[in-house]
Specification:
The structure holds two protein chains of two kinds.
Chain A: E1 3-5, E2 10-14, E3 19-21, E4 24-26, E5 31-38, E6 44-50, E7 56-58, E8 64-68, E9 73-78, E10 87-95, E11 104-105, E12 109-114
Parallel strand pairs in A: 2-12
Antiparallel strand pairs in A: 1-4, 3-9, 5-6, 5-10, 7-8, 8-9, 10-11, 10-12
Chain B: E1 5-7, E2 10-13, E3 19-24, E4 31-37, E5 44-50, E6 53-57, E7 64-68, E8 74-78, E9 87-94, E10 104-105, E11 109-113
Parallel strand pairs in B: 2-11
Antiparallel strand pairs in B: 1-3, 3-8, 4-5, 4-9, 5-6, 7-8, 9-10, 9-11
């Protein structure tokens, strides 16, 4: 069975410091991996995705993520956090060998950036 | 360029009633996927529509049904509402239904069942 785990319910970081939001996955075959961000009372905004190729993926708003197949991880990172980055972050998975669009989401991690 | 739009934004229903939620995809997109997001949880996939047909379905009962129109817009219908159906319903659109393409989400419809 496919699954996504976000082991931290909340991550706290000071503005200007680097941030990491963790994601691990379980899938049969190769994964497609996505990060989305959700602001209060809003839908999900796409940040970045890994389909194939370079393990380091760069996305919107200065975010990046590193695909690590041996550790089955896809952690989201940013070198210098902003207060405006405070939001709910979701990691999502799709098995490459399955048809269709169904994404499996983690439970989400709340990022709080203090000034 | 309009993004994904959904209507209504909020809805209150009582148990046993039926509800219809609507979604217009991002310009140029032909695939619509629906998700249910319960409070404090990640979104759960309900179903996907492509070429006016349901192509993939998640673990949701038959009370959940949908439709896609020739202009690619879509409706989600839920019959015999239960209290547990209270959630944020998200529509996502993409181009093609293979799964590699990015899904863009609308703002959602918040449904409260009393």
């Amino acid at each position: 069975a496919q699954s996504v785990a976000q082991p931290e319910d909340q991550v706290n970081v000071a503005e200007g410091n680097p941030l990491t939001v963790k994601c691990t996955y379980s899938v049969s075959g190769n994964p497609y991996l996505f990060w989305y961000v959700q602001y209060p009372n809003r839908g999900l905004q796409f940040l970045l995705k890994y389909i194939t190729g370079d393990n380091l993926v760069k996305g919107s708003y200065g975010f990046e993520a590193e695909f690590n197949k041996s550790q089955t991880s896809f952690h989201l990172k940013k070198p210098s956090a902003l207060v405006s980055d405070s939001a709910l972050y979701f990691c999502a998975l799709k098995a490459a060998n399955q048809a269709g669009t169904a994404l499996i989401f983690g439970k989400g991690t709340t990022l709080s950036v203090s000034s | 360029d309009a993004g994904v739009t959904q209507s209504p934004t909020h809805l209150i229903k009582t148990r046993g009633q039926q509800v219809t939620l609507r979604c217009s995809p991002k310009s140029g997109h032909d695939t619509v996927s629906w998700y249910q997001q319960a409070l404090g949880q990640g979104p759960q996939f309900i179903f996907q529509y492509y070429e006016e047909e349901e192509r993939q379905r998640g673990n949701f009962p038959d009370r959940f049904s949908g439709h896609q129109f020739p202009n690619y817009s879509s409706e989600l219908n839920v019959n015999a509402l239960l209290l547990g159906d209270s959630a944020l319903y998200l529509c996502a659109s993409s181009l093609g239904g293979r799964g590699t393409e990015t899904q863009y989400f609308g703002p959602g419809t918040r449904l409260l069942v009393l």
